[in-house]
Amino acid sequence: MNRIKLSEIPTQPPKGMDKSDHEDKTKALIEELGELQNVLFAEGKHSLLVVLQGMDASGKDGVIKEVFSGVNPMGCRVKGFKKPSEEEMKHDFLWRVHKEVPEKGMIQIFNRSHYEDVVIQRVHEWVTLPVIKERYALINAFEKLLQQNGTIILKFYLHVSRDEQQERLKERLSDPRKMWKYNANDLEESKRWDEYMVAYEDAFNTCSPDIPWMVIPADKNWYKEYLIAKTIVEALKKLDMQYPRIDGQKG
Description:
This protein has 251 residues and is an alpha/beta fold. It has a single domain (19-237), classed as P-loop containing nucleotide triphosphate hydrolases (Rossmann fold, 3-Layer(aba) Sandwich). The chain is 48% helix and 13% strand. It has helices spanning 19-43, 60-67, 86-89, 95-98, 116-123, 129-148, 162-174, 184-190, 193-206, 221-237; strands spanning 47-54, 76-80, 107-111, 151-159, 213-217. Strands 2-3-1-4-5 form a five-stranded parallel sheet, sandwiched between helices. Helix 2 crosses helix 10 and helix 5 packs antiparallel against helix 9. The protein starts with 18 loop residues before the first helix and ends in a 14-residue tail after the last helix.
């Protein structure tokens, strides 16, 4: 497996990509995802866990809003992982995560995830590097357990450029529709950019090699949404799911 080096991966779509054409393709994929989710729910043999990670303002909320706009809310849940609560801090780091994994038939989206505990905690040195390395092994075992129980895991890193991130953070100060997202701490965290890149790369290259991270160019929302929708649809189609039949009825 080739090692991920974020500085060598583009944050923009390839030159010549047509925005309008890909927006149309995304609409079709969103419709197809809605139908696949219906079969997933009805069949009840598999579940899907979508993990979204990325720097602040990389567009995680937008992906959830757009890509999953066509699914039935009864079959899809979203969980955002922020600073652990006092109760959560009294347990192991995976305790709050394991409670949120999807049962068969469901789609679960993680807006941030268990990877916060090997990224932000490493950057801020809240735990030691040996502890981080132990957590890599625990994450691998955790994800393998989910796989063995029929969960498809798709892990997306939204790869936004430093310049684009700064523009989006500034926009939160001027756009009334986005001011609620503003957090002065985001600007402080962005100063640790290089440290975050190292922490993410180590996590990507150490955790669950058979469940690879997909680095998604995130400077253009239309391209990011297309790639993620396409990946999810292709993964679900590989399951060859079928609607259950009445007993004795021929397929």
